[in-house]
Design brief:
TIM Barrel; 8% strand; globular; binds magnesium ion; eight-stranded parallel β-sheet; alpha/beta; single chain; binds 3-O-methylfructose in linear form
């Protein structure tokens, strides 16, 4: 029996030795990719993820503020080649649309160029400021006019920064108390804002001789309103095809993995429906739990097998990005840890899972099992009872395929075993 009292107790680690310890253990983990390798993937780092200070309804911040210069510089060093931002992540609400805004945009451009980072996506914050208390599609026409102006302004910023995508998470489009708002009318008003953004885009793109942006709606089932009018990617697909949009061809989706999981969806099935409609434009990648709040954990830390399956689907149907790291480094991670552990390990898990998805697609066992299932038992045109018996043994392959996916996830297909 082990005498616990004799176990070596680790001495307290003084603050000046903690980074070295974390660094040593991170290096000991191995499996990190070089910045050059990371740059081969269409991955973006959001300003708001890197700069998230750990605050929430019940949480005080645990980290210091971080500006865009620092975030862009660190993304460049890590080999995360794209950067994304909300308008108000980098420009104070009061100065939006003014000369001061364009000075900041010029500084951002310089920072991006110096660090070989591209701005891939811009988005408008229509959920935090008091003006959006009743949503960007509120009853008061001045709120809606202001919201449309904000969306148009973001389109202009996007073109100036060389972005290809604009994302719209409607935030508080919904209600806390029942019966006060007219859902039909509110959705019509919301469409007017998007139409204004698309019109602005067509004009600015022509002026700048650039392609128009891809406009991507992002659904989330709960938060920050109690009831949400467009809670799922499926609801957003219906909205795009409702006839309310003047340019439905310019509008697609930015699904978020966790947002679909939150309402209980199978994210892979939700993504399949978006792919079938040709509307998978952009993808927010993270992880978390079903039927809980938006915990925004980094990719693969909760559902790695499901993530592997999601990436098999995306690789099979030709989606190659963008993959936007929309997660929140945990409150327990330091400012230093965000860039030394959180971001690099998130990117590296994505790359590992992406490459593993390639192994799944070319795995001879899965391929043969899948082909056999598709070939069936040869009972075309036979009575129903014979159809059932003809497939009886083949259907066992479903479980075998699932077992094989697990083996690939843990490396057993490459000979990892345990000798007992
Ligand atoms: C909220 C989100 C948002 C959106 C962002 C993009 C803060 O749960 O996921 O991130 O992704 O607003 O428009
Ligand atoms: Mg998101
Ligand atoms: Mg989210």
């Amino acid at each position: 029996m082990i005498d616990v009292s004799e176990k070596l107790i680790m001495q307290p680690v003084p603050i000046d030795r903690q980074q070295a310890l974390v660094e040593r253990l991170t290096t000991a983990c191995g499996g990190a990719y070089s910045p050059e390798t990371r740059r081969k993937y269409y991955i973006s780092g959001p300003q708001w993820a890197a700069a998230y200070q750990g605050q929430a309804l019940f949480h005080a911040p645990t980290r210091e503020p971080v500006g865009f210069e620092e975030v862009i510089r660190r993304l460049g060093q890590l080999g995360i080649r794209c950067w994304t931002t909300h308008d108000t992540d980098v420009i104070p609400t009061e100065t939006l649309g003014t000369g001061a805004q364009w000075e900041t945009v010029a500084r951002i451009k310089k920072s991006l160029e110096e660090n070989n980072v591209q701005c891939s996506m811009v988005t408008t914050e229509t959920f935090h400021h008091a003006v959006f208390a009743a949503s960007p599609a509120a009853e008061a026409p001045e709120v809606r006019e202001y919201a449309a102006g904000r969306l148009r302004n973001t389109v202009k910023i996007g073109h100036e920064l060389g972005a290809s995508y604009a994302v719209y998470w409607p935030g508080s489009l919904g209600y806390q108390v029942q019966g006060a708002i007219d859902e039909t009318q509110t959705l019509k008003w919301y469409a007017e804002g998007l139409n204004a953004a698309c019109e602005q885009d067509i004009q600015t793109a022509a002026e700048k001789n650039r392609p128009t942006l891809k406009h991507c709606l992002e659904a989330k089932p709960f938060e920050p309103a109690a009831e949400i009018l467009l809670p799922t990617s499926d609801a957003m697909l219906a909205f795009i095809h409702s006839g309310l949009l003047t340019h439905p061809e310019m509008v697609g989706l930015n699904p978020e993995y966790l947002h679909e999981l939150m309402w209980g969806a199978a994210p892979r099935a939700a993504l399949a429906r978006v792919l079938l409609c040709g509307k998978l434009f952009h993808f927010d990648i993270n992880d978390g739990y079903r039927l809980k709040h938006d915990v925004d954990i980094a990719i693969g830390l909760v559902n790695p097998l499901d993530w592997l399956n999601v990436l098999v689907l995306l690789r099979s149907y030709g989606y190659t990005g963008p993959f936007n790291l929309d997660y929140k480094p945990p409150r327990t991670t330091s400012n230093w840890g965000v860039f030394s552990v959180s971001l690099p390990t998130a990117v590296d898990r994505f790359i590992t899972l992406w490459e593993m998805a390639g192994e799944v697609i070319s795995d001879p066992i899965i391929s043969e099992a899948t082909d056999a299932l598709k070939a069936g038992g040869g009972a075309i045109g036979k009575p129903v009872g014979e159809i059932v018996s003809a497939n009886k043994e083949l259907l066992t392959l479903h479980e075998l395929i699932s077992h094989r996916l697990f083996q690939i996830l843990i490396g057993q297909h490459r000979g990892r075993t345990y000798s007992l």
